[in-house]
């Protein structure tokens, strides 16, 4: 099974422990072999790393040419590590980061996965391309969607 991931970039510390436990259950129950991810900090990186740590493959979707410039510190190091471990990297044709680019990245994730995992608090997106938009698109497309906020 190919797992797609979308979710919040800023995850509360108390959420992370529960999320790790929930991820293990999801990955085992759904026999996840690969993940499709935009590698954003937060949920994308946590879920992607969990799949890779279990021996899965990564299909990385980079929403724009200067996407790497959004990262700093630990999230930049994690981004570079994950891109280096990807079996496939797709860079979308947006020259700079924008809400449209982020939405396009999320839509590609949905199209390439069998199951979308959304780490989402259920609140409306703060801009185009947020978790709500990706979940809504997945549901319209009939993609199996699992929402968790541990």
Fold and architecture overview:
By secondary structure, the chain is α/β, with parallel strands linked by helices. It is built from five helices and six strands. β2, α2 (43-53) and β3 (57-62) form a beta-alpha-beta unit. The longest helix is centred in the first third of the chain and has 17 residues, at 13-29.
List the helices and strands and how they pair.
Blueprint: E1 2-7, H1 13-29, E2 34-37, H2 43-53, E3 57-62, H3 73-85, E4 88-91, H4 99-112, E5 115-119, H5 131-140, E6 144-148
Parallel strand pairs: 1-2, 1-5, 2-3, 3-4, 5-6
Outline of the structure:
The protein is an alpha/beta fold and 150 residues long.
> How many whole angstroms does the radius of gyration measure?
14 Å
Strand fraction equals 15-25%
Number of helices: 5
Order of helices and strands: EHEHEHEHEHE
Derived from helix and strand composition plus strand pairing, the structural class reads: alpha/beta
Uncertain segments are: none
Sum up the overall morphology in one term: globular
Kindly report how far apart the N and C termini lie: 22 Å
Strand order of the largest sheet: 4-3-2-1-5-6
How many strands, what sense, and barrel or not for the largest sheet?
Answer: 6 strands, parallel
Number of strands: 6
Overall mean confidence score, pLDDT: 93
- Helicity, as a percent range: 40-55%
